[in-house]
Amino acid sequence: MNGPWDVHSDCTPDCARHALPRVPAAEAMRRSAVFAHRVRRALTDGGRMADPVRLRAHAAGLLDALDIRLEGPPPVDGPPGAGAGSLTAPGGGPGTLLVVNHISWLDIPALLAVEPVTLLAKREVGGWPVVGGLARRAGTFFIDRTDPRQLPSTVRELAELLGSGRSVAVFPQATTWCTAGRGVFRRATFQAALDAGAPVRPVTLGYAQQGRPSTVAAFCGADTFLGSLRRVVAARALTVRVTVHPVLTTGDGADRRELAARAERAALYGRPLTAVPASAPGSGSASAPASASVPASASVPVPASVPASASVPVPGAVRAARVHV
Predict the structure, then answer these.
(1) Would you say 274 and 140 are in contact if contact means Cβ atoms under 8 Å apart?
(2) How many CB atoms neighbour CB 290 within 10 A?
(3) CB 78 within 8 A of CB 318
(4) Close Cβ partners of 187 (under 8 Å, ≥ 6 residues apart)
(5) pLDDT at position 199, please?
(6) 104-151, pLDDT tens digit by residue?
(7) What are the C-alpha distances in Å from 319 to residues 35, 111, 187, 298?
(8) Are 201 and 247 in contact (CB under 8 A)?
(9) What is the structure's pLDDT at 161?
(10) Contact 257/90 with Cβ under 8 angstroms?
């Protein structure tokens, strides 16, 4: 526990289970060696790792080392906001607040392999072995969750980041759960989006093995990074899917409570974003394509702007374990 901002999850390491037989021990050892090599290479990149193109390449390389396939929008080969499949709004206005469900430390590489953005993490992550070094080099924005008096200044700083045009990814559940559809979205970061006039993009991450929903990647409770990594390197045919939902704009009069509820319905439950305009006059946000609809189903396809067939065999990711908001 790190203070009054912490959220309790009833998920434990026992929730993490293989949906398929494990790979042979020799294959797991090979993956471990390649993963360690990719981590060393990323760390030796120093401050250059924060460059969007290099950061995406390192993230993709880590996933590839673990033989994890990434499904979702095509990777953005350039700065955030570049390309039709971008998760974030194009440059020239506020950045986009990406609000994402949280399952695993693998969530970070998966997001960064699609589009490098600034991450929001608790301060303690910066001091973790390996993970802390990668997070710092990736340009992570660290917050102090031990003192609730810091909340107003944290919201203000996040609003300033968004207002400067930087897009930021946060995990509003504030802890990890073994699957989507658990927990609730905390509202503080949504106030920052409102203050900055920044669009909000709900994103859903899900894990499967040969099409079967899997919790093997879950990193919950008293789990350790080493224990989680041992499961992941032994996982057969593991896939992480990044599902992008239409943007929520902050110019329609919604307060942070309603904005958080709308984002939660989309990211955690795949429900339609009813009564949420694709764009609002003067909001300065990018509108979602009219064809991008979200069915009322827990199995959410990628919006029409991102072909469902766009499966990206990923090369790797950034190893930022349990980065909570």
Answers:
(1) no
(2) 10
(3) no
(4) 172, 256, 257, 259, 260
(5) 94
(6) 989 988 988 998 889 887 777 777 656 677 778 888 888 877 777 878
(7) 10, 11, 26, 28
(8) yes
(9) 93
(10) no
Calculated CA dihedral for residues 269, 273, 274, 279, nearest 10 degrees: 170
Provide the 10 A C-beta neighbour count for residue 45. 17
Instruction: Say how many C-beta atoms besides its own lie within 10 A of residue 224's C-beta.
Output: 11
Amino acid 289: pLDDT:
33
Q: Which amino acid is at 89?
A: A
Bridge-based pairing of strands 200-209 and 238-244 is antiparallel
The pLDDT value given to residue 291: 30
**214 vs 178, 277, 299, CA distance in Å?**
9, 34, 14
Q: What DSSP state is assigned to residue 248?
A: B
- The structure tokens 């902050």 sit at 250
How many other β-carbons are positioned within 10 Å of the β-carbon of residue 62? 28
User: In which element (H, E) is residue 260 found?
Assistant: helix 256-269
